[in-house]
Each structure stands twice: as structure tokens, then as C-alpha cells.
Amino acid sequence: MDCLPLLCTFAVCSAVISQSLDRKRFVVEGAVRPYGDGQYEYMHPRPGALHVSELTSIAVREGDTVIPDNLDSLFNVTGEKSRQVKGRTVLARDNKTVVFYADQPFALEENVSVKFGPGLRVRRSERRKKEHEAGCYEWSFWIRTEYGSASVQTILPFDYLDEKNEQEAIELGSIPMNRYRTLPTWAAKWRPSPEGEKAALDPKNKENKAIRDGELYYFGVGGNYGEHIGQSVITTREGDLVWWVKASAGAGMLGATQNGRLALWDQRPNDGAMAVYEVNSTYQVVDRHQMGHGYPLDYHNAFFDEEGNTILTGKTKVNGVLHNVVHVLDASTNVLLEWRSIDDFIDDADPILPGEADNGDVYHINNAERTPDGNLIISLRTCNLVLLISGKTGRILWRMGGRTSDFTFIGEDMDPPFFGQHDARQMANGNIIMYDNGRRWDIGGMRPSRVLELKLDLEKMTATRVWSFTHPSKLSSMCCGGIQIVDNGKGRPQTVLIGWGNGGPFFTEVTHEDRPRIVREFEGLAAHQPLLHHWEGSSTERPRLLLCSDANMQAVEGSRSTVGLQDWTIHFSFNGVTGISKWRLYVGNDSDVSLQRPLIERTKTAFEEIITLQELVDSMAAKNVTPTGDSNATFTDLYVRVVPVKRGGELLRPSKALKVPMAVSSPSAQPVPCSCYQPDIGRREHMDRPKSGAGSAVVDMAAVNECAELCMTSDTCETFFFFEDTGECELDETRDKKRGGLHSLKGVISGRRNCLEDMR
């Protein structure tokens, strides 16, 4: 159908703008239609756009609710090489955006022409049912010359269990986490820092119940570099571990979603690219998100808004330079909005001067999220720039920082106002708050890192420093970090949660007041963006239970030292489960341990509970308990099971039975050194390994030790993997110097050959 003259002009939107938004601080756009000769709120790709993905969709949004009639006739698409392009047209979940999907990818280096309309009818007023028909429009864009993928940052090599990790464990001192054996020995560990210890003694913090209560849980992820790569944790607000996971390929946790799930980024088996996964309260994957249009995901950010949309960031390479892409996707994965740096950063509008693009990653996006006025705030670290992007049109509304800033900055130490920043966001009062690193990898020597809060005046285009916090140690972080304003409830003061990145403590919580004071602080894990959030975790697995000995097995003057019952320890935990108040321990003479009468009941004190075999035997003697029920009977093996008990008395799933050979205290007993075994750690490829039905009901550490012995006596084995469900022992010739290949996997116990050799 040919385009006809406009039958009517668009009417000015009569929607009432919320009076709660201060126009000095927020951009209130109203009805805006900058595209298609003033007819459309949004068009993608933009007219004349270059380097467009061959997998792109084509989208048009008039701005009002679409009457979904004859949508298939709206788009007429042709390509220089593709000729007439066949496809389908859908109405997105917002009921405003119509999207065309080509049946086949566009040809590289071709010019694509679009004729849109007529026939798009919208309802301008729901109350009056007033209809309007938008006119037609023609435009074209160019498909990129080649696929330019953005590479994931190189994972640095780290030995499976190296001297550096052992040394750091010593430096942290005698903390409970150093004795945990249901986690790998190289798992991240932390403790209260000196500043945190001071804060714990501060009378103001003791008196403030709002800051002390533990109803929120901390979500943290190690950096995408170094020994903590791929490690994510959930802890209580007081720093007690709740959940630990190691994801391969440097994956990690992004936080909690609006519907109470966890968001993780990873590349799972059979996935061709990195994705964001949502997991439920039992840590099972229930949803998956990827960038649209074939762009690779950037792992810094995932934001889930109240309308059910997902905001993701990605990258594309153009002429050797990495450009940033931001997508707003609805629940059906339609791209409602795409912003690309290459569309706006042209000539004098480019925040990077010619010649500064030598390292390729010259913009480096590290977050994108909704603002209270419905727009998007974006942080670009390498060019020291924060952008406000229209949530309607995708156009830049203002620029802050860097060489193209629209603002004049007011206050002390504001030249430059921020440098290498992370996690910029707009608060409910319109202020902008961010983590100002004060330096970058490539440029050092600026100033200490800080949290910076700026008050905007959009009439005068000024940004005034109104609050900041610099760590007492004047620490400086070249990479990563983030902040969160914590609402502690009605009548309770706000606090600010700070993740310092690679240069500081695990996390710091400070009061958001004129003279901020530290409320709590932990050190040991270099975390990225922090988050406090409500959480209730459970599990489809069983508690982890194992037996080992930390005693010195080294020979003394040619003879092995004797290991007694007090040297053998039973360790048990329930990874990821909240609300456990106590544990019950049961014993029996076979794997079918009766759960009628507990031998020991103890209050939960930490993530992992530990008892010695001596304690176990003494408890049995005190209660005149024998596994057979016959006090005159003798036995060689003992079986132990534990049951976690939640607050209120609910009994959770019992553990498997742990086989405890009571001959372990004899001089001839084969040692099971704790430090040589990494529980529930396998390789990425093991995730595809077929399961064997119900699996074994017994945890047999002697069988694990036999697997380790086979590795030690082999001429080629460097790393072993023992599968509890089948008893299979896998010997691997690689030492696994890159932990990027290791992944949390229930029921796999692994270790390296030279650890056992060192213990003999």
C-alpha cells in the first residue's frame, strides 16, 4: 500500500505529570515524538544508523496504546542484497511497541530500507476511547561489515591450591572459617576488619536496633579476576556465611530480582554465550536472559524493573573499538529500547578524543538501571561519564562528567568530580550517588576512592556535592565496587552499603548522615557491587557431612605420628539454607540410621558445625549408647547422620549416612587429610554427567582416600574427582591451574596429587 498524506496531526499528550517529581532534579518529558517527522516516540534502528547487527529487529513506537489490527501490513522491508524481506510483526508487552522480525538474518554490508504504515492506529485516551492513525514513514540503515564480538576478560591462571591462598589463610588469623571443611580450602574467607571491630564496640551502634537487626541478607560476588574469580556468597548482615558457590568461567552473582529470585551471570553447558540466569529459593535455574540482536552480554549488570522488563548491557566491536549497547527487553524478549554508544558518540559528542582509543575498551559500561522518572542512568567508567537516557526515545537527556559534561560542579575536591566510577544511580530525591573509584587501571595517582552524592539543578545545570564518604585508610580501588542506599524501615535511619572493589574490605556499612560512622565492616574478599535484600533459602539437596583429620601426618624420625580420636573431626553444613536454629546428630551400626533419638543436639553457631570423634564417643558413653542397642556388642564401623532443625521446630531433610571406621585411631589407620579434599567441586563438563538414579546413601571417606591414593601412585594423574553417587574415581592428567574450569557440583569430591604427596 502506498503512503497517503496525514489524515490528522498528533495531539499533545494530556497526561497529568506526577507532582512528586521535582523538575529541577528530574527530567519530565511528557509526550515526545522526535522520529518520523514528529510522529513516533521511538524507532529502531535509527534513520541512517551504521554498523547495525544483521540479527536486528525493527521497532516503532508511536507512544500511545496500539489497537492491534492489521499489524502484518505495517512493515515493508527490503535489502540491497536480501531483496524483499519476509518476516512477522508482533505487539510487545507494553502494548505500544510494534516489532518486525525478519525470517533470515540480513546480509552483511547491505543497506536496508523500511516503509512503515499506514495503518497504525492508537488509542490516545483510555477514558474517551479517542483513536488516532499515525502516518507512514520511510527510512534506511546499514548492516555492519562483519560480526564484531566483544571478548570476555581473560581469566588469570591460579593453581588449584597454591601457596598464596595458604598464606592468606594464615594472615586472616584463627577465624572459624579457616576450619570449614565442607567448603574448598581456597574458598573466600573474611572476618571483621579493624574498623569493623571498632564499630562493634561503638555505643551508638549498640543502641541502634535498626542497624543491628538481621532481617536482611548480604549478597556479594568476588571480582572477575584473581583467586576469588567466580565465587558468590550470601551472608547474614553480621557476616555469617549462608551460601557459597563457585561458577566456572568467572561467572558471578548480580543480585536479587523484583520477584525474589537471584540473578547470576554464567555460561552453562550447551549455551553458546554468556547469559543471565534467574534461580529460585532452592537455587535452581528457572529463567534465562540474553541480549537481543545477537550482541554478547556484558557481565556487569542486570536490572529488573517493576513492569517486568529486564535491562541488560552488551558490547559490539566496530573498527577495533568496543562500543556499548543497552537493551530494555520485555518478558517475551522483545527489545523495547536499544541504545548504542556508536549512534551518539560522533565527532565532538564523542567523550573520547582521537588517539585515545588505543586499548579498544574506551567506554566500558558498568551499570544501567531505571531512574525514578522512568529513564535510564548509565555509567561509562573509562571515559568518566554518566548518562541519562530517555526511557521513551532512547536519546541522551544529559551528560555528567568527562570532557562532554553538561554540568558545572560545585564543592570541594570536584576537579574532576569523579574518575573511573561505578554503580551510578538516581535516588528517590533526585540526587545522583555513585562509587567514585578515583583512579583506573590505566591511570593511577588520582585520589582515594569514595562514595559521592550530588544534588542536581537542571535549570542551572549544576551538580553540587552534598555527601561523601572516604574510608579512614584512604584506600584506592582501580577497579570494580558499588553502593546501595539501605532503607531500614519506618523510623529507622538509612545506611549506605559499600563494596570497595579490588582495593578494599569485603563490604562496609556506614550511616547516611552528615558525619557518617562505620556500622560494620569485613575484610578478606574483594567484592564488587554489594546488595542487602530479604531472602529465604532452602535446598533440594541434603546437608553435607564428611570426616577428615587436620592432624600432622608427617613422619617423625622415620615413623608416622599416631592420630587419635581427638584428631578426627566430623563436619556438617547445609549450604544456602536460612533459618536453621539447631542440629541433631544420630548414630547407628549401618547406613539405615534410625532418626528416633538424637545422640547430640546443639544450637547452630556458624555455617559449619564441627565435632571430634572423641566428643562423639564420649557422648555415646555418657548416654550408654551403642549402635546395636546391645551394650555387650562390639562393632568396627559407626554410621552418623545429621538433621537440621528450623526455628519453630520444622525438621529438614536428613544428611546421607557418614561411614566412620572406629579403627581410625590405630597407628595403621590411613589418614584422610582435610586440606587435600575439595567437597562439591567438579569441572564444568561434569555438569552434563548422567545421574545414577538415587545414588549412594553413604558418604565413605575411605573410598575417597583410595581414589586419592590411585592418583598419587599414577604416573600421569594430577587431579582426581570422586563421584559419590556411583563411587567412580576419575583421574585427570591436568593440574587445573585455571580455577575458571572449576564449578560447584554436589556429590563430587576432588583434590590434587601433590597435596597428598606433601602430607606423606
TrEMBL record:
Pfam families xrefs: Arylsulfotran_2, PAN_1
The keyword Cell membrane appears for this protein: no
Gene3D superfamilies per the UniProt record, alphabetical: Hepatocyte Growth Factor
Keywords tagged on the record: Signal
Biological classification of the source: Eukaryota, Sar, Alveolata, Colpodellida, Vitrellaceae
Protein name listed in UniProt: Apple domain-containing protein
Limits of the Apple domain: 676-755
Annotated PROSITE patterns: PAN
Organism, scientific name: Vitrella brassicaformis
Signal peptide segment: 1-18
